[in-house]
Amino acid sequence: MKKQLTKVLVLSLLVAGAASCGKDNEKSSATTNTTTTTTSNPVTSVVGEGTCASAQNLDQLKAIYNNWSTSNYTLPKQKYTYEEYTMGEYELKEKSAWIFDYTTLDFKDSFKRTTTKDSSTAQSEFGGSKEGIRLNTLAVLNRVSPFDIRIYSSSLIEVVDNNGDVYGFNLCAPIAANPVSVFDESENTLVKIDRIRGQ
Predict the structure, then answer these.
(1) Domain ranges of the chain
(2) pTM of the predicted model as reported, rounded to 2 decimal places
(3) Are the C-beta atoms of 159 and 169 separated by less than 8 Å?
(4) Can you state the angle between helices 58-66 and 130-141, rounded to 10 degrees?
(5) Could you give the CA distance from residue 18 to residue 193 in angstroms, rounded to a whole number?
């Protein structure tokens, strides 16, 4: 139980950190763009660049992916035309020192995900197109019980599938960025976004 609680705490902190990833890429400017773009979100109506989708339960999260068609894959709107996500793969190791037990993340490997705003193509371990990513994500969500969802905010959500794997979603990020973290219970590994580069 203690090990499971430690893993949940580590994963929760990492998913919360992933929500703020990419803010380093923003540059300040002396001029202000006053143009706003109105878009239609599968769950709610949103206005402006960089807006977030939202979900309060598993059905609403599934609805986002069920309604994500080729014409609105860019919801929520991407700030950049092209985005590249460097994904880090880590192994969780239980260690102890004196009377303390703790978990470390040991780096194993890294790989990239990419997405282009106005294109149906994307690169991810979940598929080579936005449609492939959408379908693979729905397959994951269909393995989740309504009781195995953690809502940190309306756009920051974790789900646990029937294998015990934990998937973190940031609904402020494009479809190709999600899930922003994946904890594999059988391999005891964590994949998460380490860096975002936008153009």
Answers:
(1) 2-23+59-198
(2) 0.72
(3) yes
(4) 160
(5) 6
